[in-house]
Amino acid sequence: MSAVNTSYLHPKEFTLTGLSGIESYQIWISIPFCAMYVLSLVANVLIIYIVNVNHSLHNPMYVLLASLSFVDLAMSSLTTQILKIFWLNDRAIAFEACLFQMFCVHFFSSLESSILAIMAYDRYVAIYNPLRYMSILSYRFLAKLILSLFLRNLILTGLFPVLAFRLPFCSNVIPHCYCDHMGILKLACTDISVNNYFGLFAISFISGFDIIFIIFSYLLILRSVLKVGSKEAFLKAVNTCGSHLFVILYFYTTFLFSVLVYRTGMKVLPEIHIVFAVLYLLVPPVLNPLVYAVRTKEIRNAFLKIVLSKKNNSIKQSAWC
Questions:
Q1: 51 and 66 Cβ atoms separated by less than 8 Å
Q2: Among residues 119, 123, 245, 312, which is most buried (max CB within 10 A)?
Protein backbone atom coordinates (compact mmCIF):
# COMPACT_ATOMS: atom_id res chain seq x y z
CA MET A 1 0.00 0.00 0.00
CA SER A 2 1.36 3.43 -0.89
CA ALA A 3 2.36 6.07 1.65
CA VAL A 4 -0.57 8.20 0.47
CA ASN A 5 -3.09 5.54 1.36
CA THR A 6 -1.56 4.51 4.68
CA SER A 7 -1.99 8.04 5.98
CA TYR A 8 -5.76 7.55 5.74
CA LEU A 9 -6.05 4.11 7.32
CA HIS A 10 -7.81 5.70 10.28
CA PRO A 11 -8.25 9.43 9.55
CA LYS A 12 -8.59 11.89 12.40
CA GLU A 13 -11.36 13.64 10.51
CA PHE A 14 -13.44 13.50 7.34
CA THR A 15 -14.06 16.38 4.95
CA LEU A 16 -17.60 16.89 3.64
CA THR A 17 -17.67 18.47 0.18
CA GLY A 18 -21.19 19.92 0.39
CA LEU A 19 -22.61 20.93 -2.98
CA SER A 20 -19.32 20.69 -4.83
CA GLY A 21 -19.25 22.70 -8.05
CA ILE A 22 -21.99 25.16 -7.11
CA GLU A 23 -20.43 26.63 -3.96
CA SER A 24 -21.42 30.16 -4.99
CA TYR A 25 -25.11 29.20 -4.71
CA GLN A 26 -24.84 27.42 -1.36
CA ILE A 27 -25.75 30.50 0.68
CA TRP A 28 -28.97 30.93 -1.32
CA ILE A 29 -29.82 27.25 -1.17
CA SER A 30 -29.33 27.36 2.60
CA ILE A 31 -32.14 29.93 3.05
CA PRO A 32 -35.08 27.55 2.35
CA PHE A 33 -33.26 24.80 4.26
CA CYS A 34 -32.91 27.09 7.29
CA ALA A 35 -36.55 28.22 7.01
CA MET A 36 -37.73 24.59 6.98
CA TYR A 37 -35.51 23.78 9.96
CA VAL A 38 -36.89 26.68 12.03
CA LEU A 39 -40.47 25.80 11.04
CA SER A 40 -39.84 22.19 12.02
CA LEU A 41 -38.47 23.20 15.43
CA VAL A 42 -41.38 25.54 16.22
CA ALA A 43 -44.12 23.20 14.97
CA ASN A 44 -42.85 20.02 16.64
CA VAL A 45 -42.00 21.67 19.97
CA LEU A 46 -45.51 23.18 19.96
CA ILE A 47 -47.13 19.79 19.35
CA ILE A 48 -45.14 18.14 22.16
CA TYR A 49 -46.12 21.00 24.50
CA ILE A 50 -49.82 20.90 23.55
CA VAL A 51 -50.07 17.13 24.01
CA ASN A 52 -48.20 17.33 27.33
CA VAL A 53 -50.31 20.07 28.96
CA ASN A 54 -53.75 18.89 27.73
CA HIS A 55 -54.98 15.86 29.65
CA SER A 56 -57.77 15.37 27.11
CA LEU A 57 -55.07 14.51 24.54
CA HIS A 58 -53.48 11.83 26.69
CA ASN A 59 -54.52 8.87 24.53
CA PRO A 60 -52.52 6.59 22.19
CA MET A 61 -53.12 8.64 19.05
CA TYR A 62 -51.66 11.83 20.50
CA VAL A 63 -48.90 10.04 22.40
CA LEU A 64 -47.77 8.63 19.05
CA LEU A 65 -48.05 12.08 17.49
CA ALA A 66 -45.85 13.58 20.23
CA SER A 67 -43.36 10.71 19.78
CA LEU A 68 -43.24 11.41 16.04
CA SER A 69 -42.61 15.11 16.77
CA PHE A 70 -39.72 14.20 19.08
CA VAL A 71 -38.12 12.04 16.37
CA ASP A 72 -38.72 14.80 13.81
CA LEU A 73 -36.90 17.27 16.05
CA ALA A 74 -33.91 14.95 16.19
CA MET A 75 -33.95 14.31 12.42
CA SER A 76 -34.19 17.97 11.44
CA SER A 77 -31.48 18.95 13.94
CA LEU A 78 -29.03 16.76 12.04
CA THR A 79 -29.12 19.39 9.28
CA THR A 80 -27.17 21.84 11.46
CA GLN A 81 -24.05 20.15 10.05
CA ILE A 82 -25.25 21.08 6.56
CA LEU A 83 -25.93 24.72 7.51
CA LYS A 84 -22.46 24.90 9.05
CA ILE A 85 -20.97 23.90 5.69
CA PHE A 86 -23.13 26.36 3.74
CA TRP A 87 -22.64 29.37 6.05
CA LEU A 88 -19.21 28.91 7.63
CA ASN A 89 -17.56 26.72 4.99
CA ASP A 90 -16.61 24.42 7.88
CA ARG A 91 -16.37 21.05 6.15
CA ALA A 92 -14.30 19.07 8.67
CA ILE A 93 -15.87 16.55 11.03
CA ALA A 94 -14.00 14.28 13.45
CA PHE A 95 -13.84 10.59 12.56
CA GLU A 96 -15.79 9.46 15.64
CA ALA A 97 -18.29 12.31 15.26
CA CYS A 98 -18.91 11.29 11.65
CA LEU A 99 -19.64 7.69 12.67
CA PHE A 100 -21.97 8.95 15.41
CA GLN A 101 -23.78 11.20 12.93
CA MET A 102 -24.15 8.26 10.56
CA PHE A 103 -25.73 6.25 13.37
CA CYS A 104 -28.11 9.12 14.27
CA VAL A 105 -29.24 9.57 10.65
CA HIS A 106 -30.17 5.91 10.26
CA PHE A 107 -31.46 5.39 13.80
CA PHE A 108 -33.87 8.33 13.81
CA SER A 109 -35.06 7.68 10.26
CA SER A 110 -35.75 4.05 11.25
CA LEU A 111 -37.66 5.30 14.31
CA GLU A 112 -39.69 7.57 12.04
CA SER A 113 -40.53 4.57 9.88
CA SER A 114 -41.55 2.48 12.90
CA ILE A 115 -43.78 5.19 14.40
CA LEU A 116 -45.50 5.72 11.02
CA ALA A 117 -46.21 1.97 10.97
CA ILE A 118 -47.70 2.07 14.48
CA MET A 119 -49.79 5.12 13.57
CA ALA A 120 -51.18 3.27 10.54
CA TYR A 121 -52.29 0.45 12.87
CA ASP A 122 -53.71 3.06 15.27
CA ARG A 123 -55.90 4.48 12.48
CA TYR A 124 -57.07 0.97 11.55
CA VAL A 125 -58.17 0.21 15.12
CA ALA A 126 -59.88 3.63 15.42
CA ILE A 127 -61.89 3.01 12.24
CA TYR A 128 -62.49 -0.75 12.53
CA ASN A 129 -63.29 -1.02 16.24
CA PRO A 130 -63.63 2.45 17.84
CA LEU A 131 -65.51 1.17 20.90
CA ARG A 132 -62.57 -1.05 21.93
CA TYR A 133 -59.89 1.44 20.85
CA MET A 134 -58.48 2.12 24.34
CA SER A 135 -58.56 -1.54 25.36
CA ILE A 136 -56.79 -2.75 22.20
CA LEU A 137 -54.22 0.07 22.11
CA SER A 138 -53.63 0.19 25.86
CA TYR A 139 -50.65 2.14 27.19
CA ARG A 140 -49.04 -1.12 28.29
CA PHE A 141 -49.33 -2.65 24.80
CA LEU A 142 -48.17 0.58 23.17
CA ALA A 143 -45.14 0.84 25.46
CA LYS A 144 -44.11 -2.75 24.70
CA LEU A 145 -44.54 -2.22 20.96
CA ILE A 146 -42.55 1.02 20.89
CA LEU A 147 -39.81 -0.44 23.12
CA SER A 148 -39.43 -3.57 20.97
CA LEU A 149 -39.15 -1.52 17.75
CA PHE A 150 -36.79 0.93 19.49
CA LEU A 151 -34.46 -1.92 20.49
CA ARG A 152 -34.68 -3.49 17.02
CA ASN A 153 -33.65 -0.22 15.37
CA LEU A 154 -30.99 0.56 18.00
CA ILE A 155 -29.27 -2.82 17.59
CA LEU A 156 -29.36 -2.93 13.79
CA THR A 157 -28.36 0.69 13.14
CA GLY A 158 -25.89 0.59 16.04
CA LEU A 159 -23.90 -2.04 14.17
CA PHE A 160 -23.36 0.35 11.23
CA PRO A 161 -20.67 2.46 12.97
CA VAL A 162 -19.22 -0.60 14.73
CA LEU A 163 -18.59 -2.38 11.42
CA ALA A 164 -17.43 0.83 9.70
CA PHE A 165 -14.93 1.54 12.50
CA ARG A 166 -13.02 -1.64 11.58
CA LEU A 167 -12.40 -0.53 7.97
CA PRO A 168 -9.20 1.06 6.62
CA PHE A 169 -9.83 4.17 4.53
CA CYS A 170 -8.02 5.33 1.41
CA SER A 171 -9.56 8.80 1.45
CA ASN A 172 -11.14 11.15 3.97
CA VAL A 173 -13.24 13.22 1.53
CA ILE A 174 -16.98 12.41 1.61
CA PRO A 175 -18.90 13.78 -1.42
CA HIS A 176 -21.93 14.69 0.70
CA CYS A 177 -23.33 17.22 3.18
CA TYR A 178 -23.47 14.77 6.08
CA CYS A 179 -22.11 11.35 7.02
CA ASP A 180 -24.22 8.45 5.82
CA HIS A 181 -23.53 4.74 5.65
CA MET A 182 -22.74 4.15 1.98
CA GLY A 183 -20.96 7.49 1.63
CA ILE A 184 -18.43 6.37 4.25
CA LEU A 185 -18.13 2.79 2.99
CA LYS A 186 -17.19 3.96 -0.51
CA LEU A 187 -13.99 5.49 0.95
CA ALA A 188 -12.75 2.15 2.30
CA CYS A 189 -9.76 0.50 0.62
CA THR A 190 -10.78 -3.04 1.47
CA ASP A 191 -13.64 -5.44 0.81
CA ILE A 192 -16.90 -3.99 2.19
CA SER A 193 -19.12 -6.98 1.35
CA VAL A 194 -19.96 -7.66 5.02
CA ASN A 195 -20.95 -4.03 5.62
CA ASN A 196 -22.88 -3.90 2.34
CA TYR A 197 -24.85 -7.10 2.92
CA PHE A 198 -25.59 -6.18 6.51
CA GLY A 199 -26.82 -2.75 5.36
CA LEU A 200 -29.19 -4.41 2.89
CA PHE A 201 -30.40 -6.80 5.59
CA ALA A 202 -31.02 -3.95 8.06
CA ILE A 203 -32.88 -1.87 5.46
CA SER A 204 -35.02 -4.86 4.44
CA PHE A 205 -35.75 -5.89 8.01
CA ILE A 206 -36.64 -2.39 9.27
CA SER A 207 -38.12 -0.47 6.35
CA GLY A 208 -39.35 -3.55 4.48
CA PHE A 209 -41.28 -4.80 7.49
CA ASP A 210 -42.69 -1.33 8.26
CA ILE A 211 -43.78 -0.72 4.64
CA ILE A 212 -45.55 -4.08 4.46
CA PHE A 213 -47.25 -3.40 7.79
CA ILE A 214 -48.40 0.08 6.64
CA ILE A 215 -49.77 -1.27 3.34
CA PHE A 216 -51.57 -4.09 5.17
CA SER A 217 -53.07 -1.65 7.72
CA TYR A 218 -54.39 0.72 5.05
CA LEU A 219 -55.82 -2.17 3.03
CA LEU A 220 -57.71 -3.26 6.15
CA ILE A 221 -58.90 0.35 6.63
CA LEU A 222 -60.15 0.42 3.04
CA ARG A 223 -61.92 -2.91 3.49
CA SER A 224 -63.57 -1.74 6.73
CA VAL A 225 -64.81 1.49 5.12
CA LEU A 226 -66.14 -0.29 2.04
CA LYS A 227 -67.84 -2.84 4.27
CA VAL A 228 -69.79 -0.06 5.98
CA GLY A 229 -71.05 1.08 2.58
CA SER A 230 -71.48 4.70 3.64
CA LYS A 231 -70.30 7.34 1.18
CA GLU A 232 -69.80 9.81 4.02
CA ALA A 233 -67.59 7.35 5.95
CA PHE A 234 -65.62 6.59 2.78
CA LEU A 235 -64.97 10.28 2.04
CA LYS A 236 -63.99 10.92 5.67
CA ALA A 237 -61.53 8.02 5.61
CA VAL A 238 -60.05 9.17 2.28
CA ASN A 239 -59.70 12.73 3.61
CA THR A 240 -57.94 11.53 6.76
CA CYS A 241 -55.83 8.67 5.41
CA GLY A 242 -55.05 10.27 2.04
CA SER A 243 -52.91 13.00 3.59
CA HIS A 244 -51.22 10.44 5.85
CA LEU A 245 -50.37 8.29 2.84
CA PHE A 246 -48.91 11.29 1.04
CA VAL A 247 -46.43 11.90 3.89
CA ILE A 248 -45.59 8.19 4.07
CA LEU A 249 -45.04 7.97 0.31
CA TYR A 250 -42.76 11.02 0.34
CA PHE A 251 -40.70 9.64 3.24
CA TYR A 252 -40.15 6.22 1.65
CA THR A 253 -39.72 7.56 -1.92
CA THR A 254 -36.84 9.86 -0.96
CA PHE A 255 -35.34 7.09 1.19
CA LEU A 256 -35.48 4.51 -1.61
CA PHE A 257 -34.12 7.06 -4.10
CA SER A 258 -31.02 7.55 -1.95
CA VAL A 259 -30.56 3.80 -1.48
CA LEU A 260 -30.90 3.06 -5.21
CA VAL A 261 -28.46 5.82 -6.22
CA TYR A 262 -25.78 4.35 -3.98
CA ARG A 263 -26.35 0.65 -4.57
CA THR A 264 -27.28 0.49 -8.25
CA GLY A 265 -24.97 3.17 -9.62
CA MET A 266 -27.82 5.25 -11.04
CA LYS A 267 -26.52 8.14 -13.13
CA VAL A 268 -27.73 11.10 -11.09
CA LEU A 269 -25.96 14.43 -10.67
CA PRO A 270 -24.26 14.50 -7.23
CA GLU A 271 -25.91 17.86 -6.47
CA ILE A 272 -29.39 16.40 -7.07
CA HIS A 273 -28.61 13.38 -4.91
CA ILE A 274 -27.35 15.58 -2.07
CA VAL A 275 -30.35 17.94 -2.23
CA PHE A 276 -32.74 14.96 -2.10
CA ALA A 277 -30.79 13.54 0.85
CA VAL A 278 -31.15 16.85 2.72
CA LEU A 279 -34.86 17.09 1.91
CA TYR A 280 -35.25 13.53 3.22
CA LEU A 281 -34.20 14.85 6.64
CA LEU A 282 -36.06 18.18 6.49
CA VAL A 283 -39.36 17.78 4.65
CA PRO A 284 -41.03 15.03 6.78
CA PRO A 285 -40.46 17.00 10.04
CA VAL A 286 -42.21 19.97 8.38
CA LEU A 287 -45.02 17.98 6.73
CA ASN A 288 -45.86 15.76 9.70
CA PRO A 289 -47.11 18.59 11.98
CA LEU A 290 -49.19 20.01 9.11
CA VAL A 291 -50.77 16.69 8.17
CA TYR A 292 -51.09 14.96 11.54
CA ALA A 293 -51.67 17.95 13.81
CA VAL A 294 -53.03 21.03 12.01
CA ARG A 295 -55.66 18.91 10.26
CA THR A 296 -56.68 17.40 13.63
CA LYS A 297 -59.54 19.33 15.25
CA GLU A 298 -58.53 18.45 18.82
CA ILE A 299 -54.99 19.79 18.33
CA ARG A 300 -56.32 23.00 16.75
CA ASN A 301 -58.79 23.53 19.59
CA ALA A 302 -56.13 22.88 22.23
CA PHE A 303 -53.79 25.38 20.56
CA LEU A 304 -56.51 28.06 20.36
CA LYS A 305 -57.40 27.41 24.00
CA ILE A 306 -53.78 28.02 25.06
CA VAL A 307 -53.49 31.17 22.94
CA LEU A 308 -56.79 32.62 24.20
CA SER A 309 -55.95 31.74 27.79
CA LYS A 310 -52.63 33.59 27.59
CA LYS A 311 -54.33 36.53 25.88
CA ASN A 312 -56.97 36.76 28.63
CA ASN A 313 -54.27 36.58 31.31
CA SER A 314 -52.39 39.42 29.63
CA ILE A 315 -55.57 41.53 29.51
CA LYS A 316 -56.27 40.87 33.19
CA GLN A 317 -52.71 41.81 34.16
CA SER A 318 -52.95 45.02 32.09
CA ALA A 319 -56.28 45.88 33.74
CA TRP A 320 -54.83 45.23 37.22
CA CYS A 321 -51.89 47.54 36.51
A1: yes
A2: 119
